[in-house]
Amino acid sequence: MKIFSLLFIILFTMASLIQAQDTLYTETFANGALQNDWFAGFNGNNMEVEFQTGNPNGDGWVGRLGNDISGGGVGQSWSGDLTWGDYYFEAQVFVVVSAGTYYGVEFRVDSTGLTSGYQFIARNSAQSLRFRARTQAVTPIPVIREWTSAEIPGGYPSSDSWHKMAVRAVGNQFWFYWDDQELPGNPYTDTTFTQGAIGTYVWDFAVTTLNLYIDDIYVTNLVSGIDDGGAPSLSDYSLDQNYPNPFNPSTVIPFKLAKREMVELTIFNNLGQKVRSLVNQDYPAGTHQVKWNGKDDFGQTVPAGVYYYTIQAGEFKDTRKMLIVK
To answer: Mind giving me the DSSP string for 68-101?
Structure first.
């Protein structure tokens, strides 16, 4: 009876959390079709679907954005919700190092694509990654941060290849990730754009026909805490949303303590079975983060799916949901 009661509590908690943390947007171009509405932005180009072997999820279908509709060598397209403010956004981008100047993603994009939004782009001409606020009225476009090849985990790609590009936007602060590795110097601060949809971007002034290929786009919200209506410690303790999320193969779980506590951080699968005892140790007061490599207590990689992580630190308890994708 105790086992069934515990299982019921876990499943009830899971159902509540599904409402508290949502996947806002998914676009995998499965079956050769767009799953969402896409809109032409700057220069009138728009997202299409194309079959390409060797793509990340193995189904062969990817998104294709060209730059060939009008002059200037720019292709830009956007999707999602224009009211989004804080969110985590990731996508697999095929970086072609032999041609093209910029390949990448945009976020907090406006509806016209003209004043656009923030960009996170691979800059082939300089073998670097760049974060900038793209406003058509301002030339040159303000660069907020540029990471050289030496600063990029694994270096800038030397051959045409798929790479995961991700950004976490919270208020006026931003964190950036390349192949699930956090880039140095996070967070970065800028106040140019406060909300907007997601987008894609490709540019080469000298090349009139250039394509950006993109796949496995995910956007999740960033809920910083779950209020149970009666726990005054929630302002001092928190279990925050993991990032990136969805993820493959690793993710970071942040938490905050009001005072020194013995912390237990445990991961469960969708059936409520314990998968990994991630943390069982003493932590001082303050903000901390723990990385999970997607493996169980036996060192085996867990399958794709929904998982839950729970924390117990003194009287503080909380649970959150995360998603592993392959």
So the answer is: -SSTTSEEEEEES-TT--SEEEEEEEEE-TTS-S
Burial of 249 (0-12, 13-18, 19+ CB in 10 A): middle
Measured in degrees and rounded to the nearest 5, phi and psi for residue 104 equal 170, -165
Task: Specify the residue for token string 């499965």.
Answer: 30
Beta bridge partners of 253: 290
Furthest CA-CA distance within the chain: 71
pLDDT digits (tens, 9 = 90+) for 68-84: 876 668 889 999 999 99
Q: What is the pTM of this model?
A: 0.68
For residue 155, give the amino acid letter.
G
pLDDT for 204 equals 86
**Distance of alpha carbon 62 from alpha carbon 103, whole angstroms:** 15
Q: How many CB atoms lie within 10 A of CB 93?
A: 28
* Per-residue confidence (pLDDT) for residue 315, from 0 to 100: 85
Sheet arrangement for strand 251-257: 238-239, 251-257, 286-292
pLDDT at 259 exceeding the cut of 70:
yes
Range of the domain at 110: 31-221
CA distances to 53, 167, 250, 277 from 180, rounded to whole Å, are 23, 10, 7, 22
Last-in-domain residue among 170, 194, 221: 221
As a whole number of Å, the CA-based R_g of the chain is: 21
Residue with tokens 């490709």: 202
Residues 61 and 15 in one domain: no
Show which of 221, 252, 275 is a domain's final residue.
221
Residues 194 and 251: their CA atoms lie apart, in Å, by 26
Q: Are 107 and 222 in contact (CB under 8 A)?
A: no
Dihedral (C-alpha) 276, 242, 223, 129: value to the nearest 10 degrees? -170
Tokens of 67: 């730059």
